[in-house]
Amino acid sequence: MAWSFIKEVRGMKKNSKRVILLIFVLTVTAFSSFSQVQFKVIGMVTDSLKNPIEGASIRLITKKDTLRSTTDLSGNFSFPNVSDNKFNIVAFALGYKRYNSMHEVDSKTKETTLAAIVLKNEGIFLDDVEIKVKANPIKIKKDTVEYNAKAYNIRHNDKVEDLLKQLQGIEVDENGTVKAMGKKMTKIRVNGEDFFTSDLKDYMKQLPAEIVDKLQVIDDYGDEANFTGIKTGEPQKMLNLVTKPGLGSGIFGNADATSATSNAHSLAVNGNTWAKSKQIGFGANYGITNNAFSKLDNMSLNGNIRDKLNKNLNITGGYSLTNNSNKSIVSNYTETFNPQGTIFDLRENANDSKSFSNRINFGLNGATKKNFVNASISGSFGANRNNSLSSSNKTGFIKQDLLTNAEVKNNNPNVNGNINWARKMDNNRKSLSVSFNFGANGGQTNSSINDIIKYYNATTNILVKDSLLNRLVSNNTSNLNVGGNIQFANSLKKQNDSSGYSFISMSYGISLSRSKNLQSTRVEDQMGNGFIVDSLSQNYVSNFINQNISLGFNADKKRLSYSFGVNFSPSIIIGEYRTTGESLRNYQLNFSPSANLSYQIKNNKTLNFGYNGYTTSPDFNKIQPVRNSNDVQNIIIGNPNLKASSTHSANLNYNQFGQKSGLSIMLGLSGNFSFNSAVSNTVFLRDTLNTLKQQTTYENVNGIYNIGANYSIDKKLLSNKLSVSYMGNVAYSHNVFYTDNVLNGSSGINLSNTFRVSLSEKKYAFNLSTAHSFSSNTYSVANQNVKNIQILALNGGASCSLIRRLRLNTTVSKSLNLGYNIYSGNPLLVNLGLNTSFLRSEQLNLAIQANDLFNNGALFRSTIINNSINENRTRFISRFVQGTLSYNINQFGKVTNRLRPSANQDPF
Q1: Outer membrane protein beta-barrel domain spans which residues (predicted)?
Q2: CATH code of the domain occupying 34-121
Q3: In this structure, which CATH number among 2.40.170, 3.30.70, 3.40.50, 2.40.50 belongs to the domain 254-892?
């Protein structure tokens, strides 16, 4: 028993030592844990266009451990428990270069926000691996619609323009103008970098579609807004091309010789060398046309360069020269509604013009993590001469004929520049932006105008009398303007690491301009003696001062970005008439709001809203109370009491794409409402010959607005090869104007709908569409109510490559034109074409095109201004055969000598 007691005591001693040791270890561990200060590190990962990258892998590496995270939909990441103030951040994502950076932060800070991590594109090469995956054609983000080029059929020798024509919501017209959901798109970038001149038209016809991996249509607020995060105003549509791996540099260009049976011939050459740090381009063309309807003699030269002075600073420069000669014949038919009756005016204009212009520009831009700078200066000089012979035959309420022979010469030099600087401060929580701009331009115009007016009896149509007026008009103008803006933004405290950022901003801007105009009119009598007519001359100076004060709020969350603000714009116009001693004072105070919202409802489904207001001061020519008698049938006198007009615009857009269903929907609503609009007031007066002539003044009115909707619905079938789409727009407009001091109005309805089916295979493709447009305008003037124009069109096109190096194509369209007063016919337009290539490298190409085989072509345009409808018809030779011989150079990447057809391209 004693022995067992001793053993129990010894056991208790051993257990006590273990307990004490365990307590000591826990105490040291706890002390160590409490002695280490833990803090949060948050950041964001974007591409070079500031678009967030989802799913990027992030590593935070300290001396003791490695923490891991991935970016969310908005590109944000966070590490909530970091115990060392010195660490490495490593970021990587598929298709981008690996990022590695060392950081040291204040250990007393509980939360640290890192500067945005920008990942650059990197080529990924796979040897002897073929992966066949159904490509997702569209990816929709908050402010970007991204198209996957792999989902579309790109055939050999297709250009970016051909690829754009396949994309839903994108329209490319015959002149190369590109619209995205009804908005014109002019700027282009490649891999997020400025590309040569950044002009979309210049390069979408040159760049081969084979190098493109993705096309991104971006709502762009400008480079400074991307840097500061302060996005205000209405965004512009920008196209960014993402190239395939390894094809982000190269040499491309072509030399073309074209000849057509319409006696039209041209030569063109352009070349471009493209590297990451340097871009050099040049171009030249010469063309002549000489036929019954037009005579053209056009020449142009241009060159541009873009290079890096250092890692963060780019320099650009460019020069262009044009020398054009043009002879043309244009017909116009105008109906003008008036309470006293309708005036019908048929005009024929024969113009012979020559123009010469050259332009030079330089630019500097760059950005670091803390600073942004952009500066540019440009200058140009142009000289123009135009001889015109026009006839006007007025019938209806006024019966007159006017024959005018005019010669006009003018030159207009100008120079302008700007500089913008922005800086981020206080760990990117504050920013300051400063800008300055200036401009100067002048003009000298000398006109010799000879008018013969014939007056007819309104009942018998018998010539009553005629009048001859010969005038020599000299006009000298000069304009000078300077301005500047300063903006300060301060971020608000973040609620949590995934809430994004928010800024409140304040800005002040001022612009000053001074304009001079000296016009003298000399009239010759029947004996050839000349004398100055004071009533037809003017000498004035105007000064315009405008200020703008803005207050705004910007926020960018995971799925939601929005901004709103208010603007106050006080302005004053001061005019002085030196010949009469009169003066003018016009004060304005304008107010306008703004708001923008982008919401990602879920993947591939977005909603965007924009509301902006802006004011426009009246043009000085509309407020100066001096008679302008350049048009002897319409004397213009300004109204010095005009107020500034304000316009409020709103738009709502919804985009969605179903990856499984292949159905994409793009819808848009828009509206514009104007207040204090400056509209014309046309009255009829008796002249010295007791005949009627028009006199126009200007008044402020409310009630001008238009609302509309556009829509595009597209369904992809057969692995994206077959596309069925329905698109269109509907718009309603309301206009008000004065006639004989009486307020009148007009309303218009415009409808346009297109149903299209297209199939694209490797060896052949076709499309078939039917389109209908309807325009109806109703006028309140003297119960002259309705004017309707309708066009019904059937269009089809096909191309095939049945044998190697040979492609045939055709387009057919039939339209029914209803409601025109100028004869429009119902043309059937048929075009046939053939393309073939030569040489082993296929760099030599021959294209033969036969246009309008049945000679039905004509160019029509209808416009509506106040109480007038104008129809225009330009006559030209539409039936001709054209041949083009072209030598192309397309060398992209470091290894390949030229592009070769890939898996989704037509090998023929």
Answers
A1: 423-887
A2: 2.60.40.10
A3: 2.40.170
